[in-house]
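tool_call predict_complex ligand=hypoxanthine
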Amino acid sequence: MSTHIGAAPGEIAETVLLPGDPRRAKWAAETFLENARLVSEVRGMLGFTGTWKGNPVTIHGSGMGMPSLSIYVNELIRDYGARTLIRIGSCGAMQEAVRIRDVVLAMTASSLSTPSRGVFRELNFAPCADWGLLRSAADAAAASGTPFHVGGIYSSDVFYDERPDLNQQLTRHGVLAVEMETAELYTLAARHGRRALAVLTVSDHLLTHEALPAEDRERSFGAMVGIALAAAFA
Ligand code: HPA
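tool_result ok
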């Protein structure tokens, strides 16, 4: 057990998928893993461990936002020895060419701040994805016929944004999409020498104001989980 994860030692796999939503962790584990079993439910943040094509995998919720993700990822790495950490989550598109349901593979993540701000102080650290995972995820997305984009994203501190001018600058600079976790995931992976990637599904569009209908969400999110698993074990 760690402070926020109830799993016994050895109950967390070296490969961990991280959806923000604990119920999506349950759905992904039941849909994609064999012999999935609940290994943690501290504060209702569900974690499941099973196998995918014989490979041990844990799917554990991260919560929303970088401070929450930072708690779980620190404990998964320090206390359970996680080596490959892949965020599977939703994002809001910031480019016309990025459509609802498309998959975004985050090469890097801009931010105003992260929980690691205190470490870097005046330095603007550039968090980046693990190249091997990114390449394998792009191959898996192409093989599955899923429309996908590879490039920079924005990890925001807020969902209810008071700075439309900032989003305009990010769009102008080619940033593909906004979410709230990846910059800190990549920073923690870099700090501890682990592999990380974010595989995201576009759930809403900041320019067209479209949104994924609730009934479409599971089917659309399935492509992202398949790509993440294929990349982890390529
Ligand atoms: N903003 C921040 N995070 C998000 C969004 C958004 O519009 N959509 C999905 N995650």
